[in-house]
Structure formats: C-alpha cells, structure tokens
C-alpha cells in the first residue's frame, strides 16, 4: 500500500475515533505512518482527505445495506422491500460501528468548507441513486436522474432526518417499521384525493 492509501485508511480511523472537527493532520500522520507533506501532495488539504475518507466509509456502510436488504428476501419495489430497507437503515444507527453520527457533524461544518460541501452533495446524490436502485430492484445504471431525484431524494431525506433525530435522542427515533407505516398511510390518504 502506498502513502495515498495509508493516509486514507488513517483518516478513516481518525474520523471514527475523533470525528471531523477534532481530527488534526498530525493525528492522521500518526495513524497512517505517512509524513505531513504527503497529505497536501496526495489530497490537497486535510479537509479534502477527511471528506474522501468519509465518502469511503459511507460506501462501505452502503455495501452492508445491499447485503442486509437482499438477505431479507423481499420483492424489489414492494412495500416489504421499503420496510426492510428502512428497518436496516434505522437499525444501523444503533450498531457500534455506525458512521452516521459523522453526517451531522459534516452537515454543520458545510458552510465553512464550500468545496468539500459540493463534493459531498454529489456523493449524497449518488447515494440516493444507490438507494433508489436498492428499493426498486433495478440495476444502478438504469436509475436515471428522475428516479434519483424523486425516489433517491426521498430516501436520502428520510435517512438524513432519522440520523438527525437519532443524534438528538436515540430513544425517540422512530423504528424502520414506524417510518414505513407513516409513509404508507400518507400515500394511501393522498392517492384517492389525487384521483378525483
């Protein structure tokens, strides 16, 4: 493994241990075994490195989602699939290896880091594309912009809201089943009104 990969792995460990704001460049160097100048050389800045490390952690978490949702044995696009995915997302907040608390910290810091914010916004949109693929049971390359912005956008809004609620009070965070029930009830009431 080269310095670039060592730095990324070290930054991921620092994020999990200290969070975004409390991680220093020296922490990353100490954790990775690389030298301080290599951060600027490979990533441009400590913040850019931490942003890339965060995206990598989210991608690793998403891979676990695919497996969990697939193991649930639900039909793609079904109410059972929606319920299973929401249950998996909410349950992941309670895992000891959960990385979602970092999302709130990064959202709060976004105004101070506009370049990082743009990169993370793009990553979030692609995360929505992945969730739409998972929910609908379509290959990700078949999820166009409309599905990304509608189904994926809704999934990301729900995910971000649940993460925020869990950060405020884990005991009051709705379960995946409660969120699904609320969503289905809302849709059931709205659909007859639209048909008139």
Structure report:
By secondary structure, the chain is mainly α. Helices cover 76% and strands 0% of the residues. It has 9 helices and no strands. The longest helix is centred in the N-terminal third of the chain and has 26 residues, at 46-71. The protein starts with a helix and ends with a helix.
What is shown here, in short?
This protein is 76% helix and 0% strand.
Gap from first CA to last CA: 63 Å
Beta fraction: under 5%
Shape: elongated
Number of strands: 0
Give the proportion of residues in helices.
Answer: over 70%
The radius of gyration is: 19 Å
Order of helices and strands: HHHHHHHHH
Counting DSSP H or I runs of 4 or more residues, the number of helices is: 9
**Sheet with the most strands, sense and barrel status:** none
Q: Which structural class do the helices and strands define?
A: mainly alpha
Uncertain stretches: none
Query: Residue-averaged pLDDT, rounded?
Result: 87
Question: What are its keywords?
Answer:
single chain, 196 residues, mainly alpha, HTH_TetR, DNA-binding, Homeodomain-like_sf, HTH-type_TetR-like_transc_reg
